[in-house]
Each structure stands twice: as structure tokens, then as C-alpha cells.
Write a structure and sequence with these properties.
The protein has nine helices and four strands; from the N terminus they run E-H-E-H-E-E-H-H-H-H-H-H-H. By secondary structure, it is α+β, with helices and mostly antiparallel strands. The structure holds glutathione. Glutathione binds next to helix 3.
Length: 199
């Protein structure tokens, strides 16, 4: 299998972290790519032009982190890491909150990088407010970390670390002490430590 990726993408991190937790890293080769560059040919493989994209041995290209994760889980790890999350409303809710936090934070980041829009500040503020609301909800829902990890945990840590990385001004660890503790504890695991975003 071949993964189109970038080391700072939080969506890619969800997949890479899962691969690592599942012991599958050796079965996947990687190409770092700028998904917005029309000259790479990537858009032929993934018309939405977004990473992660996972090319299977038969040439099928899977996109969307959660779809890739569900495929890997079912095919290689006896549905151990993702299926139980989707079957449990409490864990599904945590996954959805983490995804929502990531998506709204990503929209705010893209808007911050865009020039010229008159209402840009209000647009960014509205999305960062949603990030704050989602973080506050996750703050009361995350468990104290133990030895087990599932895909909801992976999604939470991927979202929290990326928000802290790209929006350091709004995500203050001291406002979300449990979430910060939870993230810090999971980041001690190799699968998390080796996939963290960095400059
Ligand atoms: N819902 C998608 C989101 C993927 C996504 O937005 N990836 C970003 C990288 S962090 C991307 O490729 N952006 C390129 C663009 O939007 O032009 C997933 O879960 O995989």
C-alpha cells in the first residue's frame, strides 16, 4: 500500500498513528505531497485534491481519513481499533467532536491564509469559537488514559495537537487541563510521538 501524505496534516496523522498502533507501518510506503499543487498528478488519483490518500495494491485509491481507517481496521486488525468506536455511541461522539474540532480549526486556518476578504476576521472568529466549544465538551468526556487506545483517542490527540500547533493563540492548555493531560500521556506512545506535527 502507498500513502500520499504530509507530516503536518492532522488527517494524515490519524491514519499514520492508526497504522503504527496496528503494527502496519512496514506494509505502507509514503510519498510526501502538496495536495494543492496541480502539477503533481495527484488530482488524477484523488480528485478532491486532499490528503491522506491510500493506494491499495490493486490500484484502488481510498480517501478520507475515517474511511481509510475503517478499511485498515477491518482488513488487517480484526476490527479492533475503529469498529468498536463506531459501535459505541459514547466513543462515536468523542470521535465526532474531535473531527468537528479539527474541521472547524482547519477552515479557520485556510481563511487566515486567504487574503482580501472583508469579513475574514468574523469568519475566523466564528470557527474558532466552535473549536473552543468542542474543546470544552471534550474536556469533560475524555477518559483518564490507560493502556488501551482506539481510533477516537487517535482523533482527539490529532485534533488537539494540530490546534495547538496552528492556533496557539486560542488553545491554551491551562483552560483544558484534562485534555492536555490526556494528550500528553498518549504522546508518550511511539505511534503518537513519531507522528506529531512540527515546523
Ligand atoms: N475529511 C478529510 C479532510 C482531508 C483534508 O482536508 N486534508 C488537507 C490536508 S490537512 C488537504 O489535503 N487540504 C488540501 C486542500 O484543501 O486544498 C479527511 O478526513 O481525510
Amino acid at each position: 500500500m502507498h500513502l500520499y501524505m504530509s507530516t503536518n496534516s492532522p488527517y494524515v496523522r490519524k491514519v499514520r498513528c492508526l497504522l503504527s498502533e496496528a503494527g502496519l507501518r512496514d506494509r505502507v510506503t509514503e510519498t510526501a505531497i502538496n495536495p494543492r499543487d496541480p502539477t503533481t498528478g495527484f488530482w488524477e488519483l484523488a480528485p478532491a485534491g486532499r490528503i491522506p490518500a491510500l493506494e491499495l495494491a490493486d490500484g484502488t485509491v481510498l480517501t478520507e481519513s475515517d474511511i481509510i481507517a475503517a478499511y485498515l481496521d477491518k482488513t488487517f486488525v480484526q476490527s479492533r481499533l475503529v469498529a468498536p468506536v463506531l459501535a459505541d455511541p459514547v466513543r462515536s461522539r468523542i470521535l465526532a467532536l474531535a473531527n468537528g474540532m479539527l474541521d472547524t480549526g482547519m477552515i479557520a486556518r485556510v481563511e487566515k491564509q486567504r487574503t482580501g476578504a472583508a469579513d475574514s476576521e468574523a469568519f475566523v472568529a466564528k470557527h474558532l469559537d466552535a473549536v473552543q466549544r468542542l474543546a470544552a465538551r471534550l474536556e469533560v468526556l475524555v477518559n483518564d488514559p490507560d493502556d488501551t487506545v482506539d481510533y477516537a483517542d487517535i482523533a482527539v490527540v490529532s485534533a488537539v495537537d494540530w490546534i495547538a500547533f496552528r492556533h496557539p493563540d486560542i488553545f491554551l492548555a491551562e483552560n483544558h487541563a484534562r485534555l492536555a493531560r490526556f494528550t500528553e500521556a498518549l504522546n508518550c506512545r511511539p505511534a503518537f510521538a513519531t507522528t506529531r506535527p512540527s515546523t
